[in-house]
Amino acid sequence: MIKVIPSEARSSFDRGWLRGSHSFSFGEYQDPYNTAFGPMRVANDDVIAPGRGFGAHPHSDMEIVSIVLNGKLRHEDSLGNVAVTGFGSIQRMSAGSGVIHTEHNASDTEEVRLLQLWFMPHTKGLQPSYETTSYDITALEGALVPVVSSDGGPRVATVHQDMTIYLGRLSKGKTLDFEQNEGRRMYIFSIEGKLGLQNEHVLHTGDTARVEQTSSMKLEGHEDTFYMLIDLP
């Protein structure tokens, strides 16, 4: 089963210093029928104005992944971590038993765009932790590159949930087959371009798909495409 959600169906907002869209209930947008997809709880596409950001606020028992698409994001937390990430880097924070953090645009002149992704951990009360990793941007073409997973590994951030986040690019006319174990889910987001699914659906820029009961997925670039695929329990 493939449920396509067009970009215009997501909850969009513009607060001046922050604009973007929510794929699940978040903040002022509340829909009791759209609160999660498996352990995935939040998928926000955020753009933060120069010099602005989120002030200090707490989290607990949540795996929070930030994928910067352009610009620079500055992170600081109560664990003593300070880092700036840009395109090609991943930020992962395990809130665990509790952490306080801030996220700001590190530039005074350029916007920063990021995908903010939250996942429920497999265990509550974990020791809070934070890491940044970088992936090979040149390896994305015609491939699905793991950037976050439960197994971690070289250039892969470790998350406390049985899942993997992949990034990939497909040139127009190129195809790629993805296989996962039976009984799992896929969440697919077209960051840019048109992505075909199973010769039946097309995701335009900003569209998402929630996939269940389908362990094999044929991906096709209907035009040059940059996309994210998440393998979820």
TrEMBL record:
It comes from the Bacteria. Residues 147-232 form the Quercetin 2,3-dioxygenase C-terminal cupin domain. Residues 10-118 form the Pirin N-terminal domain. Pfam families: Pirin, Pirin_C_2. Gene3D superfamilies: Jelly Rolls. Belongs to the pirin family. This is Pirin family protein. It comes from Paenibacillus cucumis (ex Kampfer et al. 2016).
